[in-house]
Amino acid sequence: MSELVTLQVNGESRQCPAQTRLPDLLEQLGMDPRLVAVEYNGEILHRQFWGETQIQDGDRLEIVTIVGGGSFSEF
Questions:
Q1: Residue 5 burial class via C-beta count within 10 angstroms: exposed 0-12, middle 13-18, buried 19 and up
Q2: Among candidates 40, 31, 37, which has minimal Cα distance to 8?
Q3: Is 1 a residue whose pLDDT tops 60?
Q4: CA-CA distance, 42 to 28, in Å (whole number)?
Q5: Strand arrangement of the beta sheet that strand 4-9 belongs to
Q6: How far apart are CA 54 and CA 59, in angstroms?
Q7: What is the per-residue DSSP string for 32-73?
Q8: Which of 15, 17, 35, 48 has a CA positioned 20 to 30 A from the CA of residue 69?
């Protein structure tokens, strides 16, 4: 049985297996890593570091989905 760690994702408590890497967590959450920005423990985490970022017990993540499209109109 694998050990679980507890973390906060967008203010909600979640659990994942110990030694989970950030890209794997994003997939587990059903998110497309190409369309999100991640704040990791209060700091924006550059995409180049995602693969080496291992989720630790007590981590806090804010994940923002990038949404394209829309229109702008002046009043």
A1: middle
A2: 40
A3: no
A4: 22
A5: 12-17, 4-9, 60-65, 36-40, 43-44
A6: 10
A7: -GGGEEEEETTEEPPGGGGGG-B--TT-EEEEEE--------
A8: 48
Contact assessment for residue 17 and residue 4, using Cβ atoms and an 8 Å cutoff: yes
CA distance 11 to 9: 5
The position carrying tokens 């002046």 is 74
Task: Give pLDDT tens digits for 17-64.
Answer: 999 999 999 999 999 989 999 999 999 999 999 999 999 999 999 999
**Pairing state of beta strands 60-65 and 4-9?**
parallel
DSSP run (H or E) holding 26: helix 22-28
Q: Which of 16, 48, 18, 54 is nearest to 33 (CA)?
A: 48
